[in-house]
Amino acid sequence: MKESVALLERVTTEESAASTMKALVYHGPGVRAWEDKPRPTVGSPTDAVVRITTSTICGTDLHILKGDVPTVTDGRILGHEGVGIVEEVGAAVASVRKGDKVLISCITSCGKCDFCRKGMYSHCRNGGWILGHTIDGTQAEYVRVPHAETSLYPLPTGADEEAMVMLSDILPTGFECGVLNGQVKPGDSVAIVGAGPIGLAALMTAQFYSPAEIVMIDLDDNRLEVARTFGATKLISSADGKAVEKVLDLTGGAGVDVAIEAVGIPATFDICQSILAPGGHLANVGVHGKPVQLRLEKLWAHNVTITTRLVDTAATPMLLKMVTSGRLEPKKLVTHRFKLGEVMKAYDTFGKAAKERALKVILQST
Ligand SMILES: NC(=O)c1ccc[n+]([C@@H]2O[C@H](COP(=O)([O-])OP(=O)(O)OC[C@H]3O[C@@H](n4cnc5c(N)ncnc54)[C@H](O)[C@@H]3O)[C@@H](O)[C@H]2O)c1
Ligand SMILES: [Zn+2]
Ligand SMILES: [Zn+2]
Description:
binds zinc ion, single chain, six-stranded parallel sheet, 366 residues
């Protein structure tokens, strides 16, 4: 009798260990915790559950923690970037199977709605940016990914996870919102304002199109030096507030063909609109929390194009090939590595990015 009670107790403990997991949970502005949460299960036939092996922290996660994204509510597991192993799939999922290594896109897409049919997955009526936002995310031991067939990408065997995890968000964002929308062409002069992971991703992928000059602008000299190693031809510190004059000097007063805004504040949008050559493209990437002043009194006659975009991740298959072939080396963005269980420490480091010289902080499962 005693033995059977002991056995029952052991089975119950093992079952609850199998039904819980550790995750980084948001509890309102400024409050986060690494705590037990129920382990996700397949809830719909189109779902997959993925065991996270590599994840990372995005600047957007810091915005959420500051309370800038009120659609994220108390109790939400953060994170929208990750690589992992498929643990379980719903009955309707055929493109990935248990045991497959996959990339998790930051954008979940059903592939069927009107916006998905236009390739505008970010506005999917049944998805979009939901991971770590309106549903639980990837800074956890496991994550449930809806619409798995169109939101997961099987990875080649031997793929470098640290490089691959840059494909969840930053590479498609820099490329689609910055380079594609900016219509970078051979011979162009390009200015990128903001040398964070997104600006650097735009810098890397702008070179697909052989621009003549890529000017990188930031306040942080360390990040500017990193930009040089990624192919920037000119570096400008905007710490003295004279970035516009310096760009105009560099271009003989003409301005640039493409200005990519990769910060998200009025001052940097203003730099971009003030350095555009006639016919230029201003591609906004930054997430803006405040209105900007549009200088239409000057721009109306300048034949310029201003674009905005939420990353669609439509370019992910192409970018995946470029990383796999070694033509793109996003792993060079990794500055720090932590175990997933040290995610609280990883946030402390990433939160002081300038002081810690942090760009991308990798979280690895044990
Ligand atoms: N559109 C999208 O779909 C999308 C997707 C992901 C991220 N984003 C946004 O892209 C932006 C960049 O992301 P990140 O992760 O690289 O951010 P980040 O904070 O790491 O980098 C921003 C950089 O801007 C620099 N900066 C700040 N003020 C400046 C100024 N006055 N002049 C010049 N440089 C200045 C900082 O030093 C920093 O290096 C953020 O706003 C982020 O939310 C947009
Ligand atoms: Zn992000
Ligand atoms: Zn859709």
